[in-house]
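for ur thesis appendix - Protein dgcr6. copy paste whatever u need, i formatted it the way the template wanted (i think)
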Amino acid sequence: MSYFYSGGGGQRQPKWNYQTNLDPNLLATVRDEMLRKEEEYRKEQQRIEAEQKRLTSFLTQLQAMVRDLPGTYKKKFTYDVLSGIATCLLDGTVFEIVKGLEDIQQLSERNLLNKRMKIVNSQKAQKMQMAKKQKMPCRNVNKDPIICLLWRLQMLRKRRL
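the 3d part is after this line
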């Protein structure tokens, strides 16, 4: 059986009994490497497909959220914007930003709590000083309760004004 045009002209049949002189270990190594590369490629394709499914899921959920918004806000969320948000959700950028914002919020809250505690403590100190000032004239007036009572009423009126 001829593999070439055998319509005369004196063409010769090719020799197909070529024998390789490659090392069998080299062939096995190449075969193993090819199998490993095919396995890596298959895993990469599976990862890409899973990522694409997650992206589609995020995009669908975002579109459902936008449907619930009033009309003025719906216009601002185009498909490109939603696709960008879904991509950010997919690669974790949004979660990193949220984590950073949580840390900033905790620091701000601690700072505000410290300021509040300082103000509360200073108010307590002021109240104690005022109470001492109110009691001092009563001690100096020979312990007369009527004068002490009048003086306290006068202090209360001053506070209300």
